[in-house]
Design brief:
- A hairpin with a 2-residue loop joins strand 2 and strand 3.
- Helices cover 77% and strands 2% of the residues.
- The protein is mainly α and 332 residues long.
Length: 332
């Protein structure tokens, strides 16, 4: 093995750690080169969406299930923090944790019966839960503010330092996103992750191998709901205002699209999918009225030509071309 091969082998062996380090350094210096508050706000929104999508991808991409209701958990986290901090006067950090635990409990109560279903039946069950939660947000005016929304949510703070501007919140929210990324990367490489992969491949075969498929599905569903709740709390404290419009069924659909675009079963693809769909309206603001149509069209094209998602699918295409070139060179 020559020097070049050793370097390539080292890079391959430590590719995950190097990628996380490179991403962390990029995010660290990004505010130094980007002084536009609007662009920083978009970056923060990508991080919030990424936390939701990372958890959802565990359920959809790795466990092979489907959920059209994660915007409900996202909204419960946002409204839970808003009500806890403003209405009840509780401190923000403990409220975030308490709300995440409560949302996890709600997900457990929903998941135990709902995850007996599969396929489009499960999709309809989770969609129904989203509709119920969204309706409560709209109709319970005395608590949620109804269609007018809930305002006056304070920013997060450590002592006297408040995360009340885009730069400070950038470092906070991306810290949570990176922690979520590391959690998911380690989880999918663990025995739990291998069990989820077996579950996604063939549930009957996974059960034959000793995987408790029902318990595994419930666990990952609860974890993804807790992550969505955390993202919702960050969303509420970032903007200081929440309304039911942000947590409807179209938001749930967008989250699934983020998973599919990035690649089902790809942790890194979750970041790409969250960024792509979040920024798409900015790139195509002329078509704002047709946003849902454009999202649907992109989803159909990806499923037709790159069913593994953009990132995963393109990487697979590259691997195939490299393998064919090596075989051709070897034959020559």
């Amino acid at each position: 093995m020559n020097g070049r091969q050793k370097i390539l082998y080292f890079l391959y062996l430590h590719r995950t750690g190097l990628a996380v380090t490179a991403l962390s350094l990029t995010l660290l210096v990004y505010p130094l080169f980007q002084d536009n508050p609007y662009n920083l706000g978009l970056s923060n929104l990508i991080a919030i969406h990424a936390i939701v999508v990372l958890g959802l991808n565990l359920f959809v991409g790795y466990a092979g299930q489907i959920s059209l209701g994660h915007a409900a958990f996202f909204g419960l986290g946002a409204y839970g923090s808003a009500i806890g901090c403003v209405t009840l006067g509780l401190p923000p950090w403990p409220t975030m944790l308490a709300v995440a635990l409560l949302v996890a409990l709600v997900a457990l109560l929903i998941g135990v019966p709902a995850l007996r279903l599969s396929g489009h039946y499960l999709a309809m069950a989770t969609l129904g839960c989203n509709i119920v939660v969204h309706t409560v947000m709209l109709q319970w005016d005395e608590v949620t503010g109804g269609p007018s929304g809930f305002s006056g949510i304070p920013p997060l703070a450590f002592g006297s330092f408040a995360f009340d501007d885009e730069v400070s919140f950038h470092y906070l929210v991306w810290s949570f996103a990176l922690i979520s990324l590391l959690l998911c990367l380690n989880l999918v490489r663990s025995g739990v992750g291998r069990g989820l992969a077996a579950l996604a491949g063939d549930e009957t075969a996974a059960e034959a191998l000793g995987v408790d498929t029902r318990r595994a599905k419930v666990k990952v569903f609860v974890l993804s709901a807790a992550m969505a709740s955390l993202a919702g709390s960050l969303f509420a404290h970032c903007y200081g205002f929440v309304s039911p419009d942000s947590f409807g069924i179209f938001t749930s659909a967008d989250m699934v699209i983020m998973v599919v675009i990035g690649g089902m079963g790809s942790v890194w693809g979750s970041l790409f999918g969250a960024g792509f769909i979040t920024l798409l309206p900015e790139w195509m603001d002329v078509f704002e009225a047709y946003k849902d149509f454009v999202h649907g069209g992109i989803l159909v094209l990806v499923l037709m030509f790159l069913p593994q998602g953009l990132i995963t699918g393109l990487l697979e295409q590259i691997k195939i071309k490299v393998a064919l070139r090596r075989r051709k060179d070897a034959a020559a």
